[in-house]
Amino acid sequence: MNIEELDYAQLAELRNKINSELSQRRANEVLAVIQKVREVIAKSGFSEKEILAGMKGKIQSIAIEGASPARLAAKYQHPSDKSLTWSGKGHRPQWVKAHLAKKGAKLDDLLIA
Asked: What predicted TM-score, i.e. pTM, was given to this entire model?
């Protein structure tokens, strides 16, 4: 199949078919992984319930693909543009760097009251 010869409608239809097939294959892969995990659990001598209970609280520390990290509460705020905030974690935003470049400026000047 030469996709360069397809018109827009044909390409859109092909994309829909591909997306549908990808979704189905992903679902099948997930089911296969679940089955493998269940087999490992069965061989371990523990129940699924015991394993899941043992993981409680630890799940949050595992990075899940596609999940966005929890947003941290803002600790600092731009003095004039209140929409610009920073949690104090990670790289300093440009507006924080610009403020700190001023003579006598301190990070505490930007603390949210």
From this structure: 0.43
